[in-house]
Amino acid sequence: MGLIDLGSWFRRGPEPLLGIDISASAAKLVELERTRDGALRLLHCALEPLERGWINEGNIEKFDEVADALRRLVRKAGARTKRAALALPGSSVITRKVHVPAELDDDQLEVQVEAEAAQLIPFPLSEVALDFCVLGPSANAPGYQEVLVAAARKERVSDRQGLAEAAGLQPVILDAEPYAARLAARRAIERLPGGGRNLVVALFEIGAQSTSLQVVRNDDMIYERDQAIGGEALTQRIERHYHLSREEAELRKKQGGAGLADYAQAVLQPFLDNLGQELGRALQFFFTSTPYNKVDHILLAGGSAALQGLAPAVTQHTGFTASVLNPFEGMAVAPSIPAARLATEATSYLVATGLALRRFG
């Protein structure tokens, strides 16, 4: 068994790279570059909606339709780069940290990691795409080094690889969505007091169908949980309250309820209160299953994080300060990207930004 066909999941490189995030509701693209002074610059970004059922729980159900959408996405973004970083849902990737003797050479290390993986993975290694990254000396075991091992079923890897190739792209990196999200969130965490050091931060990514929670401290994920609530619930409220089609309700939601009487009070605020309560419950599960009893800050990302009034509602219902995470904050932006579009879409690009950041060390 060799390592993953796409090249290392953990490889960094300076060549141009597209970060492409494929979720249940949309495909998103981000390309970054560094300016001469070393600052990050957003070069391209775009979002292409996907119809319900095309992607189901991370599985590609309508391959040709998604590939067509991916081609439209690249054209819409105006990107010429073909090298792409993609990601699998966290539920499709098994990651573990193992400790191996520090004196192993590369060949011995690979053999040792495969032996460790065989004990950790609940299916045959012949069915697995496997990769690993040396994190550094073990803090608890002198003479050993800590290694992060990642594995996914080969068919899940092949699906993402084939999708990119069908869209005319060259897939070179495959990541796990939670890792990409944390990489993008790191810049926001570093802007918190004390550079974010030793702070316990709850990162909520609020998608169309579900919301994921990662609690992180010093780049380490200490808790994760998924909940079946997302922006689709607001679309359904609009649909019922105003007797609209689903398509019209979705459009009005994206327009902030424009033209809908009493939208903010009758529809939006009840949804925000319910979402705030659900996020509070997720944190309570975290507190009851770990030694922690508080978080220092809440970061809100995902498409629904752009909803007006969400951060105050989450702060009110959880008791912890919440803010919306814009993954492009502090970056220069290419003049071809409309500021108005970024203002409404930026929160959707968390994972795609993390994937695009894999270009840099």
UniProtKB/TrEMBL annotation:
It holds the Pfam family PilM_2. GO terms for biological process: cell division. The keyword Methyltransferase does not apply. Gene3D superfamilies: 3.30.1490.300, 3.30.420.40. The keyword S-adenosyl-L-methionine does not apply. Signal peptide: none annotated. Residues 17-185 form the SHS2 domain. InterPro entries: ATPase_NBD, FtsA/MreB, PilM, SHS2_FtsA. Keywords: Cell cycle, Cell division. This is Cell division protein FtsA.
